[in-house]
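Example S7 (structure tokens).
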């Protein structure tokens, strides 16, 4: 058992709410689930500097998609049983919502896209939608006015009320719910652009702080958390030093690619020397991303239904599944 992920006091029986599987143990749970993605499909789904192999999909994500399909089918059955109990046969089936959290550079985007592709191929969940909470960041102009540009990605930099309203409408069964769109190229929310979510079977919500609880009021008032709307949640975990290295390597790679686009918010970094770029990347990690990880993201790990722990090469080493 990985004591770094799920610590247990010495000389005390295992009180962890998780059951931990090694990579090989988890891969065995694939059973006869067919691989529905090609190597070319996988290459298109991966993010920059976040390699994912066919073996990773077969060993980790196929068993995970199988488990999630079982969960969704059970939820659909429970919904129908509840309808019959309430004599409310006209109730609209609501999406099964999966939350995906983790640090910057952990590989959340790739994980979210691979899961979306796999789950959409299951017969009971043909309609799968992915949204990221980046779209719910406050616009740069507002962040600048509030003095929060250096805190972008921290909880206070999001329009939490709008995100909660979006999720509440999704779970209320609204036919069409719209989410704002974020551009990583211009590093800002795109004014007037939205993505429509039209009653999918599954909605995947990916973001840094989606598992963070709100501060509870002393008077017992109802304060919803984003995670209140999740049916299951996943935390993508990795060692701090690996995350730092991945972030810096990605920054240096982007300096040679996306940053060279004249529209890029980070165009100013494209012409830096490698030493200058390295210094900037290290500073951004040490002053923004690392504090956010330690203060806001990592403390939510134990709230997840499932924890995927990556090794130095981006391969998932073990899977911790919360006991039912």
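Recovered sequence:
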């Amino acid at each position: 058992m990985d004591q770094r992920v799920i610590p247990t006091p010495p000389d005390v029986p295992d009180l962890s709410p998780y059951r931990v599987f090694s990579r090989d143990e988890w891969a065995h749970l694939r059973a006869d689930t067919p691989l529905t993605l090609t190597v070319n499909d996988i290459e298109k789904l991966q993010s920059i500097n976040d390699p994912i192999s066919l073996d990773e999909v077969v060993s980790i994500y196929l068993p995970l998609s199988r488990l999630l399909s079982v969960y969704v089918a059970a939820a659909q059955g429970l919904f129908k049983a509840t309808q019959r109990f309430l004599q409310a046969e006209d109730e609209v089936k609501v999406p099964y919502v999966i939350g995906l959290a983790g640090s910057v550079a952990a590989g959340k985007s790739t994980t979210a896209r691979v899961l979306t592709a796999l789950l959409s191929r299951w017969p009971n969940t043909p309609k799968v939608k992915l949204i990221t909470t980046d779209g719910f960041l406050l616009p740069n102009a507002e962040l600048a006015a509030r003095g929060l540009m250096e805190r972008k990605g921290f909880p206070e930099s999001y329009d939490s009320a709008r995100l909660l309203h979006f999720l509440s409408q999704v779970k209320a069964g609204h036919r069409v719910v719209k989410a704002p769109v974020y551009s990583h190229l211009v590093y800002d929310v795109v004014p007037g652009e939205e993505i429509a979510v039209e009653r999918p079977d599954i909605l995947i919500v990916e973001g840094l702080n989606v598992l963070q609880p709100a501060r509870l009021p002393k008077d017992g008032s109802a304060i919803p958390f984003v995670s209140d709307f999740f049916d299951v949640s996943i935390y993508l975990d990795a060692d701090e030093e690996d995350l730092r290295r991945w972030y810096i390597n990605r920054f240096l790679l982007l300096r040679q690619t996306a940053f060279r686009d004249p529209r890029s918010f980070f165009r100013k970094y494209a012409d830096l020397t490698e030493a200058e770029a390295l210094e900037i990347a290290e500073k951004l990690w040490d002053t923004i991303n690392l504090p956010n990880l330690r203060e806001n993201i990592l403390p939510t790990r134990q709230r997840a239904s499932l924890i995927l722990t990556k090794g130095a090469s981006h391969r998932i080493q073990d899977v911790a599944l919360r006991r039912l």
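Notes on this example. The domain at 18-213+223-322 is CATH 3.40.50.300 (Rossmann fold).
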